[in-house]
Amino acid sequence: MIEQEELRNRPIGVFDSGVGGLTVAREIMRQLPNERIVYFGDTARVPYGNKSPETITKFSRQIARFLQTQDVKAIVVACNSASACALDALEEDVDIPIVDVVRPGAKTAIGATKNDKIGVIATAATIGSGIYSRYIKENDSDAMVLSKACPLFVPLVEEGLWEDPVTDEIARRYLAELIDVGIDTLILGCTHYPIIRSTIGRIIGEDVTLVNPAYETAMELKRLLQEKGLESEHRPGLGTELYRFFVSDAADKFQKFANSILTYGILSAKVINIDEY
């Protein structure tokens, strides 16, 4: 039987379709500084948002199997599309805690709204699943949820066009109908979107509260680890590799991107063949 101390010292697995999940990893680094992280970005198959639920579930199961080979103590599904489509399957497959990015963000939005008009922007897969609308309605029957798929945001973020006239124009088109309806709270329902938060905030207006599920997910992970007695009590010793990064393609591009948004520079990202899992 594995000792509890050994379990506490194991890393947390985090995965996303690409680089967007790094916004979640960044919050985990900030809020749980004693924890080690194994991150996987499926850069060969990004984006997930335009794929079928069956395909997203297949990919997510492969990644979960890989992360389990790294002896992780919990898995954070740092991808809204995977959270929407594959969460039930993952919870059936693995016997360690799983944290998704949908429920923590939805809870925060319910608490933040004053006029019960909540907007959700996400990939087509996440919007198509109806998961945000369903969860919010279950917990706030008076809420009006207005959802908008924004599929071009992911490639714009991946290409580094964070402050660009093209991104501004696309954002105006996507957000126009949400502005017209008068939402007062907007969930950034894809982990890529916080990277262009300033653009979205400028266009949607200062009266709209932006909900970044990355922070809420890190706090939910912290609560769950404490509840299960799995929170690491001590900072790993000198020489310990705190954060390890794996991708399915384009390691150099991933590393450059990661170093642009993470406080902790990453030395390398290793390419693995995820189809083997």
Describe the protein's topology.
Elements: H1 4-8, E1 12-16, H2 22-31, E2 37-41, H3 53-69, E3 74-77, H4 80-93, E4 98-100, H5 102-112, E5 117-122, H6 124-129, H7 131-139, E6 144-149, H8 153-158, H9 165-181, E7 185-188, H10 197-204, E8 209-211, H11 213-228, E9 243-247, H12 251-261, E10 270-271
Helix pairs in contact: 2-11, 3-4, 5-7, 5-11, 9-10
Brief summary of the model shown:
It contains twelve helices and ten strands.
Q: Which features does this protein show?
A:
four-stranded parallel β-sheet; alpha/beta; 277 residues; Rossmann fold
Q: Can you put this structure into words, describing what you see?
A:
The chain has 277 residues and is of the alpha/beta class. The chain folds into two domains: 9-101 and 215-276, Rossmann fold (3-Layer(aba) Sandwich), CATH 3.40.50; 102-212, Rossmann fold (3-Layer(aba) Sandwich). 47% of the residues lie in helices and 16% in strands. It has twelve helices and ten strands. It has helices at residues 4-8, 22-31, 53-69, 80-93, 102-112, 124-129, 131-139, 153-158, 165-181, 197-204, 213-228, 251-261; strands spanning 12-16, 37-41, 74-77, 98-100, 117-122, 144-149, 185-188, 209-211, 243-247, 270-271. The strands form two sheets. Strands 4-3-1-2-9-10 form a six-stranded parallel beta sheet, with helices on both faces. A four-stranded parallel beta sheet has the order 6-5-7-8, with helices on both faces. α5 (102-112) crosses α11 and α9 (165-181) packs across α10 (197-204). The longest helix has 17 residues, at 53-69. The protein is globular. It starts with a helix and ends in a 6-residue tail after the last strand. The mean pLDDT is 92.
